[in-house]
Structure formats: structure tokens, C-alpha cells
Design a protein that fits this description.
The chain folds into 2 domains: 290 residues, Aminopeptidase (3-Layer(aba) Sandwich); 112 residues, Alpha-Beta Plaits (2-Layer Sandwich). Strand 3, helix 3 and strand 4 form a beta-alpha-beta unit. The longest helix has 22 residues. It has 11 helices and 16 strands.
């Protein structure tokens, strides 16, 4: 293989530039869909792609692509991730996958390495779970028929999801059927920070990801009856928060009973949210994750049974919105082995590890061979301002990504 030399400083500078696009008066580096900061960051990215000579395109879902043509008329290799963040997020989750892909494209050009396949840098829209309750929205809409028209009318901050997608350059009325079919992408690669402590604890710098957990997630709205906390006897209450509390405990208990799985309620809204008033309504986002989808489905069914029971006992109605089920994804053996060999070439101690987080690769992997590469996260931190990966580790990850691109181009 011809030498590939990553410009570590340029990569770092790009990451720090993107981090400047941050929502005002928010913690960390917050850039959520469909905020102005998120839109401005993507506009900057699109301009960088075009300055590099890539042909840019925004699809109906709002995904942003920059394409470099190959020598032959072949399906493209997709490389990328996302540039949105959670509230109070860091500078590397998702951003490394997009800007690392962009740096790999620049490096291949500078090193005069042409590819048989076209190469596409992808920035998938709205990977993080938002108040619209659709995670990995861009990759879901691109690769599946799971996108539901009724989601478009959900409103957050006075903005419907339909309008939010339009604001990002998408065409929401075209969603509902896959935008890309099997065979139209040769392979997909995603570089990501680990978002966990394993690599750092083992003293390794690279990992080939063995699989991505499946996720079942939904928004649940519990409707009870607000009333005076002092004047309403316990047996006459319809306390939505009491029902939610039992459901939250149930999720934890169910996950603890199934080692290797996790269950979480990370978002809760209570109305009227006053200390001396019985809660009349609660909105909660619940999810369960495992590599074993049978386990996920069984756990979710158990949770729903408990939810219906505890709500019925308290006279609470429960409605489910924006329910999504993301299958676990295992990379094909040939691609996983190829990624593993590249990682071990650059770090003899490189390991194989699963991903407990969901990624856009979870959906792209349904229609194309797909694999991921991890680099370490300091203290295992992510989804927080303290998220950090050393510049040399970032560059090594992009080196592995670029070399994998070249190997995939030869193999597929």
C-alpha cells in the first residue's frame, strides 16, 4: 500500500471549527436538530466539501453528501456519521466520523490515490434522539420504510417535524419508502469515539466493532388528573407521576434481570410540575438495548404489560408515540476481518468490541455491508462537555479509516 499521511492538525482544526457552531445559552457544545447552530454547521461543512471539489447533495431526508467520483462505474463507498449533538454534548461524538471521512478524502487526493469506486462523505441528519423522538432519523428514512407520515405533524417549540426537515433542505413528503436500495452502496464505514471505557482501560488505540446493539424506543404519554396534593385522598388519586415512577423502576428491574442488556428512561416531563399538585400528565422516553433482538423484544413486551397494569390500577391512560425498533447489526465477516487487520496493523494491541450505543450504521447496515472503527474516549466520557479524545488518537483513527477505504475499494 502506498503511504497515507493524515494531517492531524488540519483534522483537529476542523473539529474545533465545527464546535464553534453552538446553540447560545446551552452547556457544552450543543448542536441539536433543527437548531440554527446545526444548520450553520452543515452549511459550513457543505462549503468545505465543495471547496475540496466534492459534488454535494441533500436527499429527501435532509442527509448531506459529498461525492468524489471513482475510476469505474460502481456503487459508491459511503463513509460518515453525524454532526448533531445531544444537549450539553461534546466535540467528537459524530463529528469525528464526518470530518474524519472528509480528511480521509483529502488525504487520498493529496497522496494521489485514486479509487475504483466513488467515495461519498455522509452527514446523516438528526442521529441523536430529540424531542421529536426519532433517533437516527436520516439513516432510518434513507434505508427503511419505517418513517411514518404521522411523525411529520409532531410539534416541538412550535415547529413541526415536517417544517424542520424542510428547513434542513429535505423533502418530507417523499419519505416513507427507502431512498436507497440494497446494492446501491458498495460498503459503508463509520469512525467513532468509543463512548465507553474499554479501550482506555486496556491501553489500546483502535478497535474493530463486532456489532451494534438493537434499540426499542418510544415516547409514552400518561394522562391522569391534576388535583390538590393535600385535599385528595390516596385512594381517589389519578397520579400520572406515580405510575411513571413504577414504570421507570420496572425498566431497571427488567434490564438487571437480563445481563448484557440495558434499559433507560432518560427524559421525563411532568405537568403541572408543582410541589403541592398531583401530577396530571407525564411524558417519558423509554428505551431498551441489546445485541440480542429476541431479548429486546421480550423485555419490551414485559415492560408494556407492567405499564398497562400500573396505569390501569391508577386510572391513568397511556398512549405511545414515535415507537421505533432498530435491529442489532453485525458486520459481514469479510468486512469485519478487513477492518480488524487494518486496526492491528496500526495498533498491534487493537481489540474487537461491541457498541452499546446506536449509530447510523445500524440502518445503513440493513442495505449494505457496514462496519465501524472505534478510538478511545478519555475516562469513557461522552454525551458530555468533558468528552475528549487525544489528537494523535483521532489521527490514528482516520488513518485506519483511510486505509480501510483503500482495502474495501480493492475487495468489493
Amino acid at each position: 500500500m502506498s503511504p497515507i499521511t493524515i494531517n492531524a492538525q488540519r483534522l483537529w482544526d476542523d473539529l474545533m471549527t465545527l464546535a464553534r457552531f453552538t446553540e447560545p445559552n446551552t452547556p457544552g457544545w450543543t448542536r441539536r436538530f433543527p437548531s440554527t447552530a446545526y444548520q450553520q454547521g452543515r452549511q459550513w461543512l457543505q462549503a468545505q466539501m465543495e471547496a475540496e471539489g466534492l459534488t454535494t447533495h441533500i436527499d429527501a431526508a435532509g442527509n448531506l453528501f459529498g461525492r468524489r467520483e471513482g475510476r469505474e462505474n460502481l456503487p459508491p463507498i459511503h463513509v460518515g456519521s453525524h454532526t448533531d449533538t445531544v444537549m450539553g454534548g461534546g466535540r467528537f461524538d459524530g463529528a469525528l466520523g464526518v470530518l474524519g471521512a472528509f480528511e480521509a478524502v483529502r488525504t487520498l487526493r493529496e497522496d494521489n490515490l485514486s479509487l475504483r469506486h466513488p467515495l461519498v462523505v455522509a452527514d446523516y441528519i438528526s442521529e441523536e434522539a430529540t424531542d421529536y423522538a426519532v433517533a437516527c432519523m436520516g439513516s432510518l428514512a434513507m434505508c427503511t420504510d419505517h418513517f411514518r407520515a404521522e411523525w411529520l405533524e409532531r410539534t416541538v417549540g412550535g415547529v413541526t417535524l415536517r417544517q424542520a426537515i424542510i428547513d434542513m433542505g429535505g423533502q418530507p413528503d417523499k419519505l416513507g419508502q427507502p431512498l436507497v436500495r440494497p446494492g446501491e452502496i458498495a460498503a459503508s464505514l463509520e469512525l467513532h469515539i468509543e463512548q465507553g471505557p474499554v479501550l482506555e482501560a486496556r491501553g489500546v488505540k483502535l478497535a474493530a466493532v463486532s456489532g451494534i446493539v438493537g434499540i426499542h424506543r418510544a415516547l409514552l404519554e400518561l394522562q391522569g388528573k391534576a388535583n390538590h396534593a393535600g385535599a385528595t385522598p390516596m385512594d381517589l388519586r389519578h397520579d400520572a407521576l406515580a405510575a411513571a415512577a413504577r414504570m421507570i423502576s420496572a425498566i431497571e428491574e427488567i434490564a438487571r434481570a437480563h445481563p448484557g442488556t440495558v434499559g433507560t428512561v432518560g427524559k421525563l416531563e411532568v405537568q403541572p410540575n408543582q410541589g403541592n399538585v398531583i401530577a396530571g400528565a407525564v411524558t417519558m422516553m423509554a428505551e431498551m438495548r441489546s445485541l440480542n433482538m429476541q431479548e429486546v423484544d421480550g423485555m419490551w413486551a414485559e415492560f408494556m404489560t407492567i405499564a398497562q397494569k400500573v396505569c390501569a390500577e391508577r386510572g391513568i391512560t397511556v398512549q405511545i408515540f414515535n415507537e421505533t425498533r432498530m435491529d442489532s447489526v453485525i458486520p459481514p465477516q469479510w468486512l469485519h476481518e478487513l477492518v480488524g487487520h487494518v486496526c492491528q496493523r496500526l495498533d498491534p494491541h487493537a481489540i474487537i468490541t461491541p457498541s452499546g450505543a446506536g449509530h447510523d450504521t445500524s440502518y445503513v447496515g440493513l442495505i449494505a455491508p457496514a462496519a465501524m472503527i472505534f478510538v478511545p474516549s478519555l475516562d469513557g466520557r461522552s454525551h458530555a462537555p468533558e468528552e475528549y479524545t487525544a489528537p494523535e488518537d483521532l489521527a490514528r483513527g482516520v488513518q485506519a479509516l483511510a486505509e480501510t477505504i483503500v482495502e474495501v475499494d480493492k475487495s468489493s
